[in-house]
Amino acid sequence: MMKNKIPTLKEIAEKLGISISTVSRALNDHQDISEVTKERVKALAADLNYIPNIFAKGFRTHKTNIIGVVVPNITHYFTTTLIRGILEEASLQGYRVIISESNNDVDKQTEMLNTMIQFGVDGVLMSLSKMTRDISSILKIMNTLPLILFDKASNKIPCTQVVINEEEATYNAIEHLINIGKRRIAIIKESEFSYNSEKRFEGYLRALKENNLPIDEKIILSVDDISMIQGKRMTNVLMSLKQKPDAIFAITDSAAIGVIKTLKKLHVKIPEEVAVVGFSNSINSTIIEPMLTTIDQPGQKIGATAVKYLIEEINHPNEIFINKTIEIRSNLIIRNSTFKV
Amino acid sequence: MMKNKIPTLKEIAEKLGISISTVSRALNDHQDISEVTKERVKALAADLNYIPNIFAKGFRTHKTNIIGVVVPNITHYFTTTLIRGILEEASLQGYRVIISESNNDVDKQTEMLNTMIQFGVDGVLMSLSKMTRDISSILKIMNTLPLILFDKASNKIPCTQVVINEEEATYNAIEHLINIGKRRIAIIKESEFSYNSEKRFEGYLRALKENNLPIDEKIILSVDDISMIQGKRMTNVLMSLKQKPDAIFAITDSAAIGVIKTLKKLHVKIPEEVAVVGFSNSINSTIIEPMLTTIDQPGQKIGATAVKYLIEEINHPNEIFINKTIEIRSNLIIRNSTFKV
DNA sequence: CTGAAAGCGCTTACAG
DNA sequence: CTGAAAGCGCTTACAG
């Protein structure tokens, strides 16, 4: 297929009988250039469909206006809302976004970061893969590029982090269960190192303690992979205990949906006998019956906020940034799995 | 933050006392260079963590190894599977992916395409926004860059298209309903111009005709926005008809889930009184009870295939490509909404 | 087998 | 207010 040629500054300059420098400056609205010249240049540029060669520009100015994003799993609904926020805010600020998936594989994550650098991104937004223990490669990258963590973060990495109020959100959810009269609240969390899981667990523990409820290891269950299937398995475990729980909090909606499905199969009444709470406010949480009480995380806002902080760092490459942790508020959405209207 | 400097060919050349040209050639495994030199150069490059400046390279060779992707809505699960396939195949072939969302807004779609060009992508993969009637801007872009359509395609645009066998898949689904004894099959489709909706409607019509079933306009419903809410509304319409349908085919899972929810509210037995079929095999289709019979679309394969064809075109910029339509096979997944085991 | 040099399209310090 | 020229980091035709 024959492709059109995109005109260059040189061609515009020649057609107008002026220098390339003047054309460049006119297009960039440089103060030195007269209005008349600016207008002539801009008119011709528009006419010829001039598009600046971003590679020549980026090559020259060491800036590409591209942001790299690394996420563990792009198919999670919540992740897509984060990405939507990132795309929107980036676009507003004149940035493009390169996305890659680490598939929760730490080596792949490192590889992705390296290609990001190679592709000249101006900065990186990352949500950590599970099991990211060795942070040396990440620290190395931080020497080269601004990096901001979002959603799946880590206190060990000295950079700005944009997260939700995981601990508090869970605290509120557990407190809600206590308010509706539940006293024996089980939790299904992740066994592997996971920032979100740990924070949520802390909120769970604090809520029990502050309400003088006993902490019972038997109803604190950890799974490798926090999925619907594991939710089902763990529910069978919990409901075969001598002292069954009267509520189950799962740290993800998918696990919570597994819980509901199994409780229904066991003919356990929800929420009267056992109440269920999830985390994420995924679409699924409104499909399941009874609909799931869960925590709504404003993904778009988190994504957009992360972009703002990143561009701030990109624009001030020589400043030392104090590494803030920005907590975005989430909301408990009460539905029929805990409280019937 | 102070950032590390990435070494250049020049530094390697100086340290080794050879020319830049030789270093460049050694790194690119040029045949002219001796093995000894190659090894020395590569060793030092590895040592210094040399990363080629892709912008200098792209600028020089007019190739960026970046693919642009435009999708209507990134939060749809099926879209994320398409993207996953694109990311994987692109990564295998050494390409990065810039993603943007058109939000089903035709103007935004055009804008996105233009920024893609500006950012020097080597080619574009696009899934059309609804209501893309004016294709002039797309045709214009095809003069500049290779473009391939996937999933939401259009016969009017002369380019390679990667889609599923929409018509045949629907035909099979309707035939399945006929096989289980259904005779009055309603369809809920989109009213706006939509490639997928039209193809599915064609399959529906053909199945009825070939089985000598009457086509009744009263049970052919069109909605603007094919959502769960519309599925609910349309079910109320259908179930208040004198001659109620004994099966409902909705062209998306979300609408089909709305159908099931409403049928349950109306105490209609599924599938005995009314069977339900969706399209997509979304996660939701297994959450709803009864689980939804639907059509599984191999998103990853579609995405990967689209990338392959695009890179083929990128690598042969002066060839005229015959615009093929590649149909990827989908599968009917039979579940309890049509057939109880 | 290796090197000197041109050039990709742009920006910008310097000079006028 | 405008221009000539250098240079960003790379590749490659040309010369040896």
UniProtKB/TrEMBL annotation, chains A, B:
Keywords on record: DNA-binding, Transcription, Transcription regulation
Signal peptide range: none
The keyword Metal-binding belongs to this UniProt entry's keyword annotation: no
Superkingdom of this protein's organism: Bacteria
CDD domains documented for this protein: HTH_LacI, PBP1_LacI_sugar_binding-like
The keyword Transcription regulation is assigned to this record: yes
UniProt-recorded Gene Ontology molecular function terms: DNA-binding transcription factor activity; transcription cis-regulatory region binding
Record-annotated membrane-spanning stretches: none
Pfam families named among the record's database cross-references: LacI (PF00356), Peripla_BP_1 (PF00532)
Residue ranges of every copy of the HTH lacI-type domain listed in the record: 7-61
SMART domains: HTH_LACI
PROSITE patterns noted in UniProt: HTH_LACI_2 (PS50932)
Designated name of the protein: Transcriptional regulator, LacI family
Originating organism: Winogradskyella thalassocola
